[in-house]
Amino acid sequence: MKSFLSLAEARYSVRKYQNKAIEPEKMEKILQAAKVAPTAANCQPFRIYILKSEEALKTIRRITPCAFNAPVVLLMTYNEDEQWKNRLEPGIASGQEDVSIVAAHMMLEAWDLGIASCWVNAFPNHVAAEAFDIPKNEKVVLLMPMGYADPQAVPTPKHTQYRAMDEVVKER
Asked: Where in this chain does the record put each Nitroreductase domain (predicted)?
């Protein structure tokens, strides 16, 4: 059994995929990882739109070059009405963070199953929302192309470049 840290270190953003479908049982496990991910006050405001039809993939590829010809692209949103809201500071809410936690869980579960992914923010969110008829009370956060990595896919050179611990961790 792999340790969590070795799994997290091994995973990288894949930008080239095989033309091979993800097996339903593997996709179910990836979605189960989303279901059990923690969200603020367990409000679970996230929504996952699975783009895999020829029409949906054609549309998302028109919106962004960062779909990388993956056989599946997840479009992830949160419902503004369901997100946790901080009563101690107006304007602070959990939707974007909740989606981010869910996405991270899914990426790592997928990797553990041999499925690659890439977190994508390089797209016009409002265009994606309109193209896929996302309800007005949902905010699009990210896209996640997903599938089997092409044998020629490699991590970017930055993959193992880390800032020094004292740059990112501060004690007070």
From this structure: 9-61, 67-148
Element (H, E) at 51: strand 46-51
3-state helix, strand, coil in the chain (%, to 5): 40, 20, 40
Pairing of strands 72-79, 46-51: antiparallel
Please state the domain extents for the chain: 11-150
| DSSP H/E element including 72 | strand 72-79
pLDDT at 127 over 80: yes
pLDDT digits (tens, 9 = 90+) for 64-91: 999 999 999 999 999 999 999 999 999 9
Give 120's DSSP letter.
B
- Beta sheet of 138-147, edge-to-edge order: 46-51, 72-79, 138-147, 116-117
Whole-number Å distance between alpha carbons of 137 and 31: 22
pTM of the model: 0.96
What does the alpha-carbon distance between residue 143 and residue 127 come to, in Å, rounded to a whole number? 13
